[in-house]
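Protein in question quoted in full.
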Amino acid sequence: MSDILIKNGTVVDGTGAPAFKADVRVKNGVIAEVGPNLQAAGERVFDATDCQVTPGFIESHTHYDGTMWWQADLDPLPGYGATTMVMGNCGFSPAPLHKYMPAQREMIGIFSFFEDIPEGPFMQNLPWDWNSWSEYRASVERNVKVPLNYAAYVGHIAIRLAAMGVEAWEREATPEEIAKMAELLDDALAAGALGLSDNMHDHDGQNRPVPSLKACDAEFEALFDVMERYPGCCYQVIVDTFMRMTGPANLERLARLLGGRKIKVQIAGAIPTLEFQKPILPAMQESVRKMREAGVDVWPGYAHVSPTSTLSLVKSLIFAQSNDYVWHEVVLEDDHHKKAALLADPAWRARARESWDTQAWDHSPLKNPQELFLLDSENGTGPLNITLKEYADSLGLHRSDAMADWILKNGTRSTVHMAPFPKDEALTLELMKDPRTVGNISDAGAHLQMLCGGGENALLLTQYVREEKKLTLEQAIHVMTGKLAGHFNLHDRGVIAVGKRADIAVFNMDEIQRREMVKAHDVPDGRGGTTWRFTRAAMPTRLTLVNGVPTFENGAFTGAMPGQFLSPANDDAALAEAAE
């Protein structure tokens, strides 16, 4: 490990305190000294003149659990100053696993569908040499080397399938099965899982509620009893503010289950920020207020980037999650000739029109053709850069027929893009400034043909700080670093201070941008070929350090893989060992 002295920079320390001019000395992967005019003591010197020196950014909500096994460079995260990522969100985790293959395949299928990742690489690239979460962690540490540190939740869905097999989809658990779930959770938390993640939101491609939606109160209570024995852990849950709008009822249930318990809870969607969600916003704000008044340590999770939808027939959950299972039939069909045959079939088209008219949610992309853009053609036929509504009107067609026609002409690998959902910016800023919220949520590592995720952190610096001046630089850095480290109980990082891990980003505010998405054709498809994903060019940072090791420098990924598996239980001990 090479020591380094970062000279002549402006330190934004991650606490929200005012920036200050200082040098930063890194020794053995730890920040050893912070102050003006430090003298080199034989280590490498990095000139940070005109640059900000900040803690490395924490990606607070990712789904790299599978992707990290075949995309080890975690592109484009190093070039955006990211140094830690949190995985296993929303109830989805690769462990624990049931001992029988049918139940294991169910977990793979769930992960693949909800995170828009092909099943093939899951089967081809992961060894599946675990049943318990502790065995999974050991396998990851043996087999995976990545440039970011990472922490991981254990998912309630995975726990339920491991304890109940495929019947987890169908019914409540027996007392014996609940006891088994508690045992599996205890194993995970003892092995350093960040906590338990959960899902009160999703339905699959067959319109089945995810297994965690079948859990009774007794099941939750047993799992929360285990969590209270591990005060450093967190509970993460996503509630439904996007489809069936059960979010208010979800919060009422959570308030009842968590009342009186000493459990930190992060609720994705607790304070919804999109305009179409406004009807349920007051009830949810009131629930959060009452939970906090009752002593529940609740942290709303939010994204500063409005969701966008890319409608792809290769791999996408958008149609199913818009409540249209007719177009989803085309997504499920592997053969592109058969996809085209469906799109051309008059009987299928009639069912598709009916589904768009009577089944799709009113706020979904399918009901808003004026917001769907024909931008990405496989063969260039076009027309391009017009809306689906304009195209449909020009032909006198129903919007479903018009999209089918356009895709047939342009190729079944073409994509249709939705404009970002209108968002309440004032409420988003209010959440950023709330001391108990979780921001910088990106879903990076998932939905690879719908969004990139990685690199969205740059907008906090470019849009909110530099251009609109709605946040100070100190506030934006705190949102992505010290605040998140505190939430996740990762107390050895997230701040530029002596004794903290040397996870550091160095960048010039005049140089950075959130780059546009581009296609990279490097995702294994499990059949010996590749498919594509969205990525973007680097922000770039001048330097990204992870545990004191440069992962991005001179405009490029260095190839270094210093990332470590983090957990609240072992970080203090590891830090003490490094300092010796």
Q: What stands out?
A: The first strand starts at residue 4 and ends at 11. The two ends are 14 Å apart (CA to CA). The first helix runs from residue 64 to 67.
